Amino acid sequence: MRAHQYRLPVAILAAAAAAGGATVLLRPRSGVIEPATASATDYFTDAELQKGRDYRAPQRALALGSLALSGAVLVVLTVRPPRAIRRALARAGARPIAGAAAAGAGYTAAMAVVELPLAAVAHRRARNVGLATQTWAPWLADVAKATAVGALLTGAGTGIAQSVIRRFPGRWWLPGAATVVGLSTLMVFAAPVVIDPIFNKFERLPDGPLRSDVLELAREAGVEVGEVYRVDASRRTTGHNAYVWGLGATKRVVLYDTLIDDLPDDQIRSVVAHELSHVVHKDVRRSLLWLAVVAPAGTLLVGELAERLSGEAPLGTPAALPALALAAALAGAVLGPLGNVLSRRVEARADTFALDLTRDAEAFIELTRTLAVKNLADPSTPRVFQLIWGTHPTTVERIGIGLAYRRPSAQSSANGHGP
To answer: pLDDT tens digits for 177-202?
Structure first.
């Protein structure tokens, strides 16, 4: 009994230590320029700063409201579920794996409905400021598609989790961790060719000066880029972005059509160089490796939390699914911010790499400013939000990286880092 009391605290410490250790182990140790001191007022007008604050502060409140709402629903389903839910989960116990899959899919669909009003308010605000381009019909169609995909994936994942728990009672967290890593790797590989085309049209970047620039930058970086795609992001937003996604044969650099159409060539080169850093340094694999290190302790923590939250419902039954979902959410709240520490460092290295590859600090600084203005970023985001949810350095920090690159000593340091 006494040992049982300490299992949860030990699991919490183990999960935090694993996430912290993985972050320290995997964070870039070189090739990062520390940002120089910069002030937002030197690069943005008062009107631009105010517009970013006026838009982002309520959007953050809506996001927190949605998070609180989903959390409250999970708590109610775990602690005092409605009679209809209890009966449905009890009936699902007759076929526990199929029943768990159905319950997981149903929960995803139900939560989409619960969160829809707040999501609609956020979308309306984005439309009012010109950031979102979708009218209500196509927006609702995208919500429906996202809900269907999410329900399918959650249902499959819940069914697999139920199968693992029943097959390995008492020690399920270890094969469960392997399952989490395996499924995540499969998703990263398959999503670019299976899921992403459901929502957007991707076309190979056509031959021309931009494609030549991209391929030339890749040659200078000494990397096989895979393929470069243009995505029709303008059907949803006027914002600018780019990203690297996929593994092996599905690896690709994706550029928003808004970015390609609106930005000058030197700024596009900075964007592409930043994304090439993720290819050079295998950052997608780095994130999967972080997950592989953290997953065993994280899954153990989920199990210990779920046992205490599920009451009399055994973990291998559909009745315990709300407790498992709540436990997973709590564990994610503990481990997520530590993963974001790694992400911010990786993105800072990508900024440094872009400067080193293009040798154009002015274009990088102007790109950072342009992205912030176009995407209605708020350079004065509260520090607590940045610490918990920030995946990139702040706008001012990124400008500071560009300023620091101008220094001869910083440039020498950057030029010294390799793939």
So the answer is: 999 999 999 999 999 999 999 999 99
